[in-house]
Amino acid sequence: MRIYTKNGDQGQTRIIGKKILYKSDARVEAYGEVDELNSWIGYTRSLIGNQTNELSAELEEIQQLLFDCGHDLATPKNDERHPFKFDKAKPTTWLEERIDTYTEKVPTVKKFILPGGTQLASSLHVARTITRRAERRIVLLMQKEEINVDVLTFINRLSDYFFAVARYANYLEQQQDTLYRNSKDVFH
Q: Which residues form the signal peptide (predicted)?
């Protein structure tokens, strides 16, 4: 099987069900953002060290789930030969449990925090912003066509997860979060 199809030479790609779309189509944009997020998580996993090793399997599981999300975003709603794979109930509940666990372990904050800290935490904050961009692309697609809305729910929760796990990664590596301060406090 060849990797190249030459459809892309004309700015097009084939989605699940063999329909050909332009690469600028809202559907292609949506699953492309999820693919970028999945790649970023792979990079993020490469930053895991001894103190944060407990996060590796969890991030891999998220990558697996994102493949199912991408499948469903690349599949038109009524394609009977390719039913949706993603069901939000268990994965979303699992993310919520992880968010609650991490939130309980880190110091409480009453201000915004700046993205950053360790390399791993910083990368997790970038994952959060890529997730938010993917969510916006999914909403654009949803405004034009029916989608598996379970994917949108999961992606929405996933950005919260990345915020919580970034803080936890800093905590594991004994790196304090940097609190936001209003510029009026400095430049008055």
A: none
Q: What is the CA radius of gyration of the chain?
A: 19
Torsion angle, CA of 6/9/10/15, rounded to 10 degrees?
A: 50
Q: Which residue has the higher pLDDT, 153 or 181?
A: 153
Distance from chain centroid for Cα 69 = 10
**Which residue range forms the structural domain that includes residue 25?**
17-183
* pLDDT tens digits along 94-131: 999 999 999 999 999 888 999 999 999 999 999 999 99
Distance CA 72, CA 182 (A): 42
Q: DSSP strand E in 28-119: where?
A: 113-114
- 54 domain-assigned: yes
CB 154 within 8 A of CB 86: yes
CATH of the domain at 153: 1.20.1200.10
What is the C-alpha separation between 187 and 126, in angstroms, rounded? 29
Q: Which pLDDT score, from 0 to 100, does residue 18 have?
A: 74
Angle (deg, nearest 10), helices 56-73 and 26-45: 170
Using left for φ > 0, alpha for ψ between -120 and 50, and beta otherwise, residue 17 falls in left
Question: What's the domain count of the chain?
Answer: 1
> Predicted confidence band at 174 (pLDDT cuts at 50, 70, 90)?
very high
In a domain, 4, yes or no: no
